[in-house]
């Protein structure tokens, strides 16, 4: 139970700030701390949260409940003080589970596409006249906020499988977009991962929406038939109940038809490109129908969806050289993003600045990263963003660079961010795309790349 005042250690993170914002909207006293200030923290302060920069045991002096992010170490002085004081200490997932009680909750899980699918479902449901609550790991462009306390009876939450914490949600309904090994620091085998997703499904009360185009999803879907759940399968597969067909993708969006058990529901036109987003939209549509909402209104809502920040996000355009930013940090995601870029680009080349995320992931998927990145025309590899992990022998961007080079794609391993930007700018011509890619601080490069492109353009004109 969440007893106020509630203190968040690491309040600036996407998941923690989302929960804090909902609590503030409910009129609950919230305090928090974080290692550094940010726009997110400024917005929480504006809503009434008391946030300190830096961690100190005194920060929890008024708290009755403490919530911690997964990034918080046992040595954190606020966590140590909370435990010594006997205060209830909840994980982010446990606190979100408390918020979801009393709602028809939908937990959106899967290795890839969770953030976009959760955002799509929220927008589609809003079009139906329902005001859902939601907590999302990214920021939808439609709302400019990663969370909302709604007046309706539906609560939509992105459900992170990385540490199995999604097992505490016990949702009314669930979406599984795909199932693939990613977090090798937590899952030692495919079997362990699949069992965790099966446990998640068993904790779900009413319905499951799952993609059968995905090998992992299809394998799991075949094992849950005996459960007392309304299972809706989706995809292009002939076995899918919600079947996708007539797919076309372009620079400006995607178009497809959806058929429910042999009956055409309608044509869906998305404002965002990428075939993977066709699957994400179909998952959202299926969940909306499972909630008893009007398919036509859901489809209309999906047609208005404006995307999510850091998901193939256009940062700017200088002399017809476009700069995008994307969160892709797994080989499957990298492939999908570059494929989307191919839809968008009419001519010219794709230049990717990629920052591997975590040593464990880089070591496990080096070959996969090389294969997916080699579909670009030029690759610039930064050093690994450790995200708190210790370095691992053999985990290196240079290993990926060598494999890409062996595949015949132009590649540079450039540890210097300044030099990496210069390489991208020097190589870019009109009609080219530059994509900054990864889950680390590579996202900050877009502004500087645009500045350097602008300077180069003015120099050429002089």
TrEMBL record:
<feature type="domain" description="Mur ligase central">
    <location>
        <begin position="108"/>
        <end position="287"/>
    </location>
</feature>
<dbReference type="InterPro" id="IPR005758">
    <property type="entry name" value="UDP-N-AcMur_Ala_ligase_MurC"/>
</dbReference>
<dbReference type="InterPro" id="IPR000713">
    <property type="entry name" value="Mur_ligase_N"/>
</dbReference>
<protein>
    <recommendedName>
        <fullName>UDP-N-acetylmuramate--L-alanine ligase</fullName>
        <ecNumber>6.3.2.8</ecNumber>
    </recommendedName>
</protein>
<keyword id="KW-0963">Cytoplasm</keyword>
<feature type="domain" description="Mur ligase C-terminal">
    <location>
        <begin position="310"/>
        <end position="440"/>
    </location>
</feature>
<comment type="pathway">
    <text>Cell wall biogenesis; peptidoglycan biosynthesis.</text>
</comment>
<dbReference type="InterPro" id="IPR036615">
    <property type="entry name" value="Mur_ligase_C_dom_sf"/>
</dbReference>
<dbReference type="GO" id="GO:0009252">
    <property type="term" value="P:peptidoglycan biosynthetic process"/>
</dbReference>
<dbReference type="GO" id="GO:0008763">
    <property type="term" value="F:UDP-N-acetylmuramate-L-alanine ligase activity"/>
</dbReference>
<dbReference type="InterPro" id="IPR050061">
    <property type="entry name" value="MurCDEF_pg_biosynth"/>
</dbReference>
<keyword id="KW-0436">Ligase</keyword>
<dbReference type="GO" id="GO:0005737">
    <property type="term" value="C:cytoplasm"/>
</dbReference>
<keyword id="KW-0067">ATP-binding</keyword>
<dbReference type="Pfam" id="PF02875">
    <property type="entry name" value="Mur_ligase_C"/>
</dbReference>
<keyword id="KW-0547">Nucleotide-binding</keyword>
<dbReference type="InterPro" id="IPR036565">
    <property type="entry name" value="Mur-like_cat_sf"/>
</dbReference>
<dbReference type="InterPro" id="IPR004101">
    <property type="entry name" value="Mur_ligase_C"/>
</dbReference>
<dbReference type="Pfam" id="PF08245">
    <property type="entry name" value="Mur_ligase_M"/>
</dbReference>
<dbReference type="InterPro" id="IPR013221">
    <property type="entry name" value="Mur_ligase_cen"/>
</dbReference>
<feature type="domain" description="Mur ligase N-terminal catalytic">
    <location>
        <begin position="6"/>
        <end position="104"/>
    </location>
</feature>
<dbReference type="Pfam" id="PF01225">
    <property type="entry name" value="Mur_ligase"/>
</dbReference>
<dbReference type="GO" id="GO:0005524">
    <property type="term" value="F:ATP binding"/>
</dbReference>
């Amino acid at each position: 139970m969440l007893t106020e005042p509630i203190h968040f250690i690491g309040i600036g993170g996407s998941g923690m700030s989302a929960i804090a914002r909902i609590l503030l909207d409910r009129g609950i006293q919230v305090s928090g701390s974080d290692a550094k200030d940010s726009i997110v923290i400024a917005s929480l302060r504006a809503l009434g949260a008391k946030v300190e920069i830096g961690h100190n045991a005194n920060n929890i002096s008024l708290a009755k409940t403490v919530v911690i992010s997964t990034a918080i170490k046992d040595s954190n002085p606020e966590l140590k003080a909370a435990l010594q004081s006997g205060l209830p200490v909840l994980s982010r997932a446990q606190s979100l589970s408390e918020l979801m009680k009393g709602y028809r909750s939908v937990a959106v899980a899967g290795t890839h596409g969770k953030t976009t699918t959760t955002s799509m479902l929220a927008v589609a449901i809003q079009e139906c006249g329902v005001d859902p609550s939601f907590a999302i790991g990214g920021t939808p462009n439609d709302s400019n906020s990663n969370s909302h306390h709604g007046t309706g009876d539906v609560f939509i939450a992105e459900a992170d499988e990385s540490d199995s914490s999604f097992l505490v949600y016990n949702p009314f309904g669930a979406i599984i977009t795909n199932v693939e090994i990613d977090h090798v620091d937590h899952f030692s085998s495919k079997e362990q991962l699949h069992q965790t997703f099966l446990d998640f499904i068993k904790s779900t009360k009413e319905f499951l929406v799952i993609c059968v185009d995905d090998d992992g999803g299809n394998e799991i879907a075949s094992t849950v038939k005996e459960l007392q759940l309304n299972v809706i399968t989706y995809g292009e597969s002939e076995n899918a109940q919600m079947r996708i067909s007539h797919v076309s993708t372009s620079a400006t969006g995607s178009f497809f038809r959806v058929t429910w058990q042999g009956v055409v529901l309608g044509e869906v036109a998305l404002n965002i490109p990428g075939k993977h987003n066709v699957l994400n939209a179909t998952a959202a549509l299926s969940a909306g129908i499972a909630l008893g909402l009007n398919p036509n209104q859901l489809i209309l809502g999906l047609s208005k969806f404006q995307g999510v920040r850091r998901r193939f996000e256009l940062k700017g355009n200088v002399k017809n050289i476009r700069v995008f930013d994307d969160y892709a940090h797994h080989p499957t995601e990298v492939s999908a993003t570059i494929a989307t870029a191919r839809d968008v680009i009419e001519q010219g080349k794709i230049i990717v600045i990629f920052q591997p995320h975590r040593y464990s992931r880089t070591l496990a998927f080096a070959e996969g990263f090389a294969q997916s990145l080699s579909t670009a025309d030029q690759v610039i590899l930064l050093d690994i963003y450790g995200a708190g992990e210790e370095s691992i022998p053999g985990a290196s961007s240079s290993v990926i660079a060598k494999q890409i080079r062996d595949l015949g794609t132009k590649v540079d391993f450039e540890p210097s961010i300044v030099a990496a930007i210069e390489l991208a700018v020097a190589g870019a011509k009109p009609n080219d795309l530059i994509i900054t890619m990864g889950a680390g601080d590579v996202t900050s490069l877009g502004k500087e790349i645009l500045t350097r492109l602008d300077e180069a353009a003015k120099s050429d004109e002089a």
